[in-house]
Amino acid sequence: MPQLDPTSYFSQFFWLCATFGTFYLVLTKYILPQIAKVLFVRHQKAEQAQITQESPLQQETLHVQHTTGQHMTDACSKAKQAVQNAMQKSQEWMKEQTAQVQQKQLNSLQTQYTSQMKQNAYTYAHVSQALKHTLPPSAQAATQFLHPKNTPKMRVFDKTVVHTLFTK
């Protein structure tokens, strides 16, 4: 079923939010103000009629109008709360998904970095071995620099030898 395809979740969620967001805006900006205006006018007319003459039918009409207004107000506040909750949950979900994508990308970058560093270490070891075999006999005594205590000396010696090899 195409709607259960995980690659389309984001687009489905986006369009769901866009549709309900548009519906909410149209409802709150156009439809509900018109309904409120009609109810207000009816309420005003009912009050004028009540002032002129009070009958049981008019009292019942006023009561129905009042309860209808309260129900509309309650429904609007519940709808607003539901939309706010949905938006908050969608923002939290988006943050989680962004963090997961970033974590995946950082893991791949870490593996690439590790493999590159291994390759550089192997290249350095290969160059060091090649230098040992290509050095003149007078420089063979310099192999004592390879001792772990002599690493700074070995680095200076390697830089000097490599520099002289590439400058000629």
TrEMBL record:
One of its GO terms (biological process) is ATP biosynthetic process. Its main location: mitochondrion. InterPro entries: YMF19-like_N (IPR003319). The chain crosses the membrane at residues 12-32. Residues 2-63 form the ATP synthase YMF19-like N-terminal domain. It is found in: Mitochondrion membrane. GO terms for cellular component: mitochondrial membrane. Coiled coil: none annotated. Pfam families: YMF19. Keywords: ATP synthesis, Membrane, Mitochondrion, Transmembrane, Transmembrane helix. Belongs to the ATPase protein YMF19 family. This is ATPase subunit 8.1.
